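Re: [help] complex structure
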Amino acid sequence: MALVDIRNLTRIFDVSKPWLNRVVERREKAYLTAVSDVSFEIAERTVYALVGESGSGKSTIGKMLVGLLGPSKGAVEIRGTDLARETDAAKVDAVRRDIQMIFQDPFASLNPRWRVRDIIVEPVAARGGDTEGMAERLLEQVGLSARDAGKFPHEFSGGQRQRICIARALASEPKLIVCDEPTSALDVSVQAQVLNLMSDLKDEFGLTYLFISHDLTVVQHMADRIGVLYLGRLVEEAGPDALFDDPKHPYTQMLLAAAPQLGNFGREVPPPTGEIPDPINPPTGCAYHPRCPLAADICSQTRPEMRDLRGARVACHMAE
Amino acid sequence: MSAAVLSIRDLTVEIPTRHGILRPVNGVSYDIAAGEVLGVVGESGAGKSMAGNAVIGLLSPPAHIAKGEIWVGGTRVDQLVGEDMRRLRGKEIGMVFQDPLTSLNPLLRIGDQLTETMLAHLDISRAEAEKRAVAALEEVGIPGAAERVGSFPHEFSGGMRQRVVIALALCAEPSLIIADEPTTALDVSVQAQIIALLKKLCRERGTAVMLITHDMGVIAEAADRVAVMYAGQLAELGPVRDVLTAPHHPYTDGLMGSTPLASRGKDRLHQIPGAMPRLDALPEGCAFHPRCPCAQDRCRASPGPRIEDGAGRVACWFPMVREAVA
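Output below.
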């Protein structure tokens, strides 16, 4: 059985103006569908990557997975337990213990007034667990020194802080770690160190990652399975080889063509046209049809279902 | 190659602090020819933006140019102050910053910002400037330019805003554009559009471009030559293909190895041990030696010599010799 089972997940945000403004300006309530009918599974001990541009809903899915946001429709099941609906507190607690998160900005996600030791043991201390020597052990595991436990976050560089975030995520011995753009704020040589560390820890502790990123090369390096999001919808899902060698959805093809690559010296290709549409008023039918070179009549009328195609799942009427 | 639009000679920027003098840019020299794109890469703190700011006179005190010369189109500019510097900025040098929202005035319609810039630098009438503003917006690919001149910056998306900033940088027809991380805040597909636009406009007008970025992929696709900076110094400079496929400096080599690549698959990424030294604690000799796999006694004693090699040059005692991949 899959560790995580996400079914028909939808999240709608109310982005209306305040009541008085609506009355005065005669406006309707406005809703933003950040995630729309997304379904996928994450197998144990694998890395599942979500890629997409800003506003595609990848972070919203991550937050729903750890329970920072509730789903509007659909369900997130972790080992068969739906955290949003389960009423047995002991069961919820057991599953919660297995999930941790690493955030993008290591400068904003560590409390500047706490010592590193207290930051790292907090997930365990909050549940009344024994934390003797734990911070020192974890610091050494993520490549820092045990002596760093008494320092404050400002004494560390960006890459070192992200290592502290990883140590904190490991403290409660989780099964699943949601990594929301863990290396986007880091320089490339530091990114390499952090990615290598994450791979090593995955093997050592048998971890499962949901890896959220906008960087296709990083995703290709890390992921066992990749989901491509566009405007809150999953448009394609495949393994890295299938996705990068044979992208099926026109959006994936555009994304791969647009990504700058080493080795494409002085490349001259027509850049992609158009921009991501307004998520408050998404296009009818397939969300990508206004920018799609293959678009036909059906694309503007019916939203395509996910279907299997040569080892991938793709939501497109025209893909062959 | 035509005459250099920008020449930097032995540029050193100093910041005096209580703990001694920091040198975020230390003895850097390079030229950019008309119509050429020079990519400047390096990690945070390598001094790449500081060098760009020094050229356009935007160093914030106490940082100042301590040594060296900057020539733009045959005029020495590093000693200009006040009104002379103002005339140079915008007229001879255009600048594109990372964040398009903070580089536009939120209270002015974009048409007014364009005409104001042109009236300040070009000898034309207001009517002519307004006509040129529409043309400039059309050129950077803003749909419905004639109507959009009356819009405010917040009415545009991030990509469209960056197009406006590029139009603004180019409207006084400068001979040099400094683009400091122009696409870092943008999505991949928009980034491709902006880079293509920048390349096209500069080629058409023969504008020299200093493209400052940390993204090696962008450099590979957009730049003609690349300068790799490390701890305020120029580690390596050369044609982009040579530097990226057959680096001579161990730092460039490490940087390339750290970049995840399709062809490398899932192998471990190459790691450069340690981190870039802080400017107040630079090691003796070559600044890279504590992290360098080839370091020897000589590297600890004195900084690497500048070795010229055809079109490129490298600052290293033991440059790596490798055949360029065709």
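The CA atoms of residues 231 and 277 of chain B lie 7 Å apart.
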